[in-house]
Amino acid sequence: MKKVLLCAAFMSCLFSTTPVVAQTHEPDAVGYVVRLGEVAPDFEMKLTDDQTVRLSDLRGKIVMLQFTASWCGVCRKEMPFIEKDIWQKYKEHPSFALYGIDRDEPLERVKSFARQTKVTYPLGLDPGADIFAKYADRKAGITRNVLIDKEGKIVMMTRLYNEDEFSSLCKKIAELLEE
Fold first, then answer.
1. Which long-range contacts (CB under 8 A, 24 or more apart) does 48-52 make?
2. Residue 139's pLDDT is what?
3. What is the three-class DSSP state of 130?
4. How far is CA 164 from CA 16, 113, 128, 160, 170, in A?
5. CA atoms in the 13 A half-sphere facing the CB of 91
6. Which helix (H) or strand (E) covers residue 112, if one does?
7. Which one of 16, 87, 121, 169 has the fewest CB atoms closer than 10 angstroms to its CB?
8. How far is the CA of 14 from the CAs of 10, 21, 63, in angstroms?
9. Contact 151, 157 (CB under 8 A)
10. Separation of alpha carbons 172 and 118, rounded Å
11. Over 131-152, what HEC string results?
């Protein structure tokens, strides 16, 4: 009987339908725990307009994620450029999606932040910074941008705001949308 139970337990483990959780790497020099070429970790988030978005539902689109927070001065500097040079240019493009992901702040503060920065692209809530922690070390700083291709793979990651890097991000989005 013991052998039958052990065999059954082994077979259960072998054929289990429980999904395997992707392992993250040790943080790189700027705190990312994901790497270029990897499939972006999936998540679900609630937007400030009460809609819910799941990253995996956006397959087939070029997706830009911007990790942000109202207390981040660099974010406040970068967001108008994202609004003008990326969102206003591509918001109607059927193969593009952009989401700001606000790190661990309540809904009303995030709405106020959007009004203050005059951004119109969708902002999502990240209670406990759990979405952020799928991409970077939980203690790492923001602003961060992650660009994901139509297959769901990470093709570019930025940290802080640098004009040359931002220009490269804009060019990469344009290239991916032309493919």
1. 48/107, 48/110, 48/111, 48/114, 48/122, 48/123, 48/124, 48/125, 49/122, 51/122
2. 93
3. coil
4. 48, 26, 32, 12, 10
5. 11
6. helix 107-117
7. 16
8. 6, 16, 35
9. no
10. 24
11. CHHHHECCCCCCCEEEEECCCC
Taking alpha carbons only, the member of 66, 41, 39 closest to residue 150 is 39
Residue 103 CA to residue 129 CA, distance in Å, equals 5
Q: Are 75 and 83 in contact (CB under 8 A)?
A: no
CA distance 27 to 41: 15
95 and 61 Cβ atoms separated by less than 8 Å: yes
Which of 131-158 are b and which e, b meaning 16 or more Cβ less than 10 Å from the residue's Cβ? Answer: bbbbbbbeebbbbbbbbbbbebebbbbb
**What tokens does 30 get?**
């700027």
Contact 147, 155 (CB under 8 A): yes
| Cβ atoms of residues 102 and 69 within 8 Å | yes
Distance CA 78, CA 68 (A): 10
Q: What is the pLDDT along the chain (179 residues), one digit of tens a residue?
A: 444 433 444 334 333 333 333 446 899 999 999 999 999 999 999 999 999 999 999 999 999 999 999 999 999 999 999 999 999 999 999 999 999 999 999 999 999 999 999 999 999 999 999 999 999 999 999 999 999 999 999 999 999 999 999 999 999 999 999 98
